[in-house]
Design goal:
Blueprint lengths: L5 E10 L17 H14 L6 E4 L5 H7 L6 H16 L8 E10 L2 E10 L1 E11 L2 E12 L9 E6 L4 E5 L2 E4 L2 E4 L1 H5 L8 H20 L3 H18 L1 E3 H8 L4 H14 L5 E3 L5 H4 L3 E4 L5 E4 L10 E5 L5 E5 L7
Antiparallel strand pairs: 1-3, 2-8, 3-4, 4-7, 5-6, 7-8, 9-10, 11-12, 13-14, 15-16
Length: 332
């Protein structure tokens, strides 16, 4: 979490998709207590997302150069140029929404950062009071250009660590020329493909489930053992050992191992030992869900996955499984 945030400058530029050019502010945003709270909370929400992709910048595009040449004296000019370029790309998207781009030069723990928050407009309603024939009437008006409220986070964002030359991007896919693709990494900054921490974990989980389904007939114990290997390795080393999953869980089957590694490589994972970010702690250590063909669902805390005094899985000769839960307190 970002702490002790000091906001040096902020500015907002408008991307109205119904017109041909962005509306660029020429003066800085006045930061009162309410504005500070809004910006600080937005930054806190997006600073350490597991969906953030991390890059070290090079001169791969005009927009990378803009960030790399940034200093506090050209804040307005650089944010204007970035907004023009982002607007041109967004106009090519068939699913883009009008939004405000809020830029903030801030500092936390001695590190100076430039943040961009893409704030897509939300619909909201307010009341309006009028007088008709000396009588008061209260009506409801729909606003189509309301910013996300203080409890919501921006739809897309980036944070640039100025002295470290490191860029973190949180983005979603847009439709460009009938193809779903990411805008900021692909088009705006022209950066190489990389996985976010969440993408990495999701790819491992997806490939593991696929192997269990195709080669082990969705064996529950195999699913549990994959989860146990990931949780144990992550909690002790912050990594996942792909070879250990194939050797221990998939019984060193060469066919499965080759196929598993192929699935991971196709997803962008080429290493045998994959480092996982601490931001994934809640996701990895959440309860394991087991769902049967009969529609029965069981949620098991990960600390009990290896505790045979609490739960055990017994496979019958016909392939069905008995799930035995033991010594449970306060069943209700």
């Amino acid at each position: 979490m970002e702490t002790n945030i000091i906001i040096h400058k902020a500015i907002i530029h408008i991307l109205d998709m119904s017109i041909t050019s962005p509306v660029l502010s020429e003066l800085l945003l006045e930061i009162d207590d309410d504005t500070f709270e809004y910006i600080a909370k937005q930054i806190t929400k997006i600073a350490f997302l597991p969906t953030n992709k991390k890059y070290t910048l090079s001169n791969s595009s005009e927009n990378c150069e803009l960030l790399m040449t940034f200093d506090k004296d050209n804040f307005e000019q650089i944010t204007q140029s970035l907004s023009k370029n982002i607007f041109e790309i967004m106009k090519r998207c068939t699913d883009s929404y009008s939004s405000d781009l809020m830029y903030c030069l801030y500092e936390t723990e001695g590190v100076k950062k430039l943040c961009m928050l893409k704030l897509d407009y939300k619909d909201s309603f307010i009341h309006k009071i009028d007088e008709i024939d000396d009588k008061r009437i209260v009506s409801v008006i729909k606003y189509k250009s309301t910013l996300p409220n203080i409890s919501q986070k921006s739809d897309e964002s980036f944070i640039y660590e100025i002295d470290n030359n490191v860029l973190f991007i949180n983005e979603k896919k847009h439709e460009v020329e009938e193809e779903k693709t990411t805008i900021f990494s692909n088009f705006i900054f022209n950066l190489p493909f990389t996985l976010s921490p969440k993408d990495t974990y999701d790819a491992i989980e997806k490939a593991s489930k696929k192997m269990v389904k195709e080669y082990f007939d969705n064996d529950i114990e195999k699913k549990i053992n994959v989860k146990k290997e990931i949780v144990e390795s992550f909690n002790s080393k912050g990594t996942v050992d792909i070879n250990k999953i194939t050797d221990t869980v998939f019984e060193a089957d060469s066919v499965v191992k080759e196929r598993y590694n192929e699935e991971l490589k196709n997803s962008g994972i080429k290493e045998d030992t994959v480092k996982l970010d601490y931001k994934l702690d809640k996701k990895i250590n959440k309860k394991q869900r087991i769902k049967t063909e009969e529609g029965i669902e069981i949620l098991i805390p990960v600390e009990y996955l290896d505790d045979t005094d609490k739960i055990s899985f017994n496979t019958n000769e016909d392939g069905t499984v008995n799930i035995v839960m033991k010594s449970l307190n306060n069943v209700g």
